[in-house]
Amino acid sequence: MLNPIAFSLGPIPVHWYGIILGTGALVGLLLAIREGKRFGIVPDFFMDLLLVGVPSAIVGARIYYVAFQWDQYKNNLLDVFKIWNGGIAIYGALIGAIIGAVIYTRRKGYNFWRIADICAPSLIAGQMIGRWGNFMNQEAHGGPVAESFLRNTLHLPNFIVNQMYIQGEYYHPTFLYESLWNLAGLLFLFWLRRRPGLRAGELFAAYFAWYSVGRFFVEGVRTDSLSFAGPDWLASLLRTLWSPMNSFGWGAMEPGTNIRVSQLLAVLLVIGATVFVIYRRRKGLAVIRYADPIVSAKAAKRENGSAEDGAAAATPAERAIDAAPAREDTAT
């Protein structure tokens, strides 16, 4: 087992989990800054966005988790704030980050969809790296498997196989499944954003659709899924959609109740992203292309105001010269 603590600063242990998550956030920031330069957006904009997005994501992730585990926390309200004990949800983090980003981009005068498109690869890159924090903590894994499945079927290196040996059993490395899926998604988004027909908002929608498809199938073998009691027809539909994974030897785990929240939300997000793109195109709302210039409404307003102030400050003679028709000089 790998030591989850990287080093200590006096009495304060520094966990690999935090280092890995911080690395994921930094890589995402660098990707956004690099793409933002193509549109003339200064790096400070994305640095400030990160400072807004990270706390918003943490709060959203915790609220989401606690909401579905309220019976566990209703008599111990102080435990709600103990995030170091685990209990955060990625979809809640996305919801929180989006709310923070909407507020921030509007205050800066930018169209949210344009900024969301730039940040889409950053999000999936951060998730790709962040899953290795779960690996270090031996958490968010799947159900039990045979050691031979990890070594001979998946051909995983020893350090992964050994880390998946938890309390006397080997488990599905779901962190790895999701991380590899996100790597493929990152490459797909890099390719997609250079397509000339891509419209504003569609890269962000593609990110949600791609991530949700992978999360739906990975969630089927997780042992820590949030779940609730829903109608049997819905549970049967979700199991049917997931069933092709049986051929890979994954073996679905049964949740405590019959509907896994992340699986249901994943299906809804794929449908929502598809409807979003089709509706906006059919209604003529997808006019702006991804490659079009990005201009802050506040910056444009300031420039117009400066131009108007300059015109008002000009002398009558200067305004007369500007208004006079141009006359070509004649040679003698």
TrEMBL record:
Residues 299-332 are annotated as: Disordered. It is found in: Cell membrane. It is an enzyme of class 2 (transferase). GO terms for molecular function: transferase activity. A 1,2-diacyl-sn-glycero-3-phospho-(1'-sn-glycerol) binds at residue 131. Keywords: Cell membrane, Membrane, Transferase, Transmembrane, Transmembrane helix. Residues 319-332 have a biased composition (Basic and acidic residues). Its main location: membrane. It comes from the Bacteria. Residues 307-318 have a biased composition (Low complexity). PROSITE patterns: LGT. Pathway: Protein modification; lipoprotein biosynthesis (diacylglyceryl transfer). It holds the Pfam family LGT. The keyword Thylakoid does not apply. Catalyzes the transfer of the diacylglyceryl group from phosphatidylglycerol to the sulfhydryl group of the N-terminal cysteine of a prolipoprotein, the first step in the formation of mature lipoproteins. PANTHER family: PHOSPHATIDYLGLYCEROL--PROLIPOPROTEIN DIACYLGLYCERYL TRANSFERASE, PROLIPOPROTEIN DIACYLGLYCERYL TRANSFERASE. This is Phosphatidylglycerol--prolipoprotein diacylglyceryl transferase. It comes from Gordoniibacillus kamchatkensis. The lineage of its organism: Bacteria, Bacillati, Bacillota, Bacilli, Bacillales. The gene is lgt.
